[in-house]
Amino acid sequence: MTQKVTYKRVLLKLSGEALKGDQDYGINTKVIEKLALQLKKVVALGAELALVVGGGNIFRGINVKESSSLDRVTGDYMGMMATVINGLALQNVLEHNGIPARIQAALEMGKLVEPFVLGKTRKYLDKGKVVIFVAGTGNPYFSTDTAAALRASEIGADIILKATKVQGVYSDDPVTNKDAVFYPELSYAEVLEKRLKVMDSTAISLCMDNKIPIMVFNMFNGDNIQNAICGNNVGTIIRG
User: Fold this and answer.
1) ∠98-219-105 over CA atoms, to 5°?
2) pLDDT score, position 81
3) Angle at 237 (CA atoms; ends 87, 142), nearest 5 degrees
4) Where are the beta strands (DSSP E) in 125-197?
5) Which CATH number fits domain 9-239: 3.90.850.10, 3.30.1330.10, 3.60.10.10, 3.40.1160.10?
6) How do residues 81-122 score in pLDDT, each as one tens digit?
7) Contacts of 192 by beta carbon, 8 Å cutoff, 6+ apart
8) Region 156-172: what's the mean pLDDT?
9) Mean predicted confidence (pLDDT) in 218-240
10) Which run of H or E residues covers position 50?
11) What pLDDT score was predicted for residue 63?
12) Degrees, nearest 5: CA angle 190-196-201
């Protein structure tokens, strides 16, 4: 039986770390190829899909230490450039698999990728093209989680899907703490009060203000992206 989408317009947040797979750093093309196959099924169901990709598999500006001669602002811009590299890889593999995709950057980048223009974004989504947002918000000190919340608000997304390597949200890191408690559902306020490491507080507050639910799930578990878009419970749902 063919599934039907519950969430028509979706913002999928991908961490850079997810793209490296079992490598220490860089881009694992096998991971992107598997992702493309999942996204192809989603697009075929009629979902309108936008992606925000991080750059942690290449460089994370927030990791620049205060004692380093490299300052945080420069580090953040370097991190933004890393997201562009990931975005280009994603677009290339998606197009290779027959999925029309466009990249829009929060920074002016000349002939490399086009700038973010909301009107164009909406036209692309209406035509069934996947839009990949890169370079975060274009400002230092703001994470790609905040960029995801911002872009989701701007395009009128029905939900943010945060793809991770674990089942959902836990009270602690389940990899290092076997007693960590899994939360099937949370409110925005609970995430903020418990200081859970889901998204940064700015991103959570933006979603709360704009009433955008967030689903956190394991992207490597079967067809979880498709199942999430079709309204199945595959992780942790965060809402008001």
Assistant:
1) 60
2) 95
3) 40
4) 130-134, 159-164, 169-170, 182-183, 185-187
5) 3.40.1160.10
6) 999 999 999 999 999 999 999 999 999 998 889 999 999 999
7) 201, 204, 205
8) 93
9) 92
10) strand 48-53
11) 67
12) 80
Q: Cβ distance 151 to 50 under 8 Å?
A: yes
With 90 as the cut, is the pLDDT of residue 212 above it? yes
Tally of residues, the chain: 240
Q: How far apart are CA 29 and CA 93, in angstroms?
A: 8
Burial class of residue 234 in the structure, from the number of CB atoms within 10 Å of its CB (0-12 exposed, 13-18 middle, 19+ buried): buried
- Residue 185 in this model has a pLDDT that exceeds 90: yes
CA triple 5-55-145, angle to 5 deg: 55
What distances in angstroms separate CA 50 from CA 8, 166, 174, 180, 192, one per listed residue? 11, 22, 29, 32, 26
Q: Global pTM?
A: 0.94
Q: Are 26 and 20 in contact (CB under 8 A)?
A: yes
Q: pLDDT value at position 67?
A: 59
Torsion sign, CA atoms 149, 123, 228, 59: negative
Instruction: For strands 130-134 and 101-105, give the pairing.
Output: parallel
Whether the CA torsion 180, 186, 190, 196 is positive or negative: it is positive
**Spatial distance between the Cα atoms of 116 and 121, rounded to a whole number of angstroms:** 7
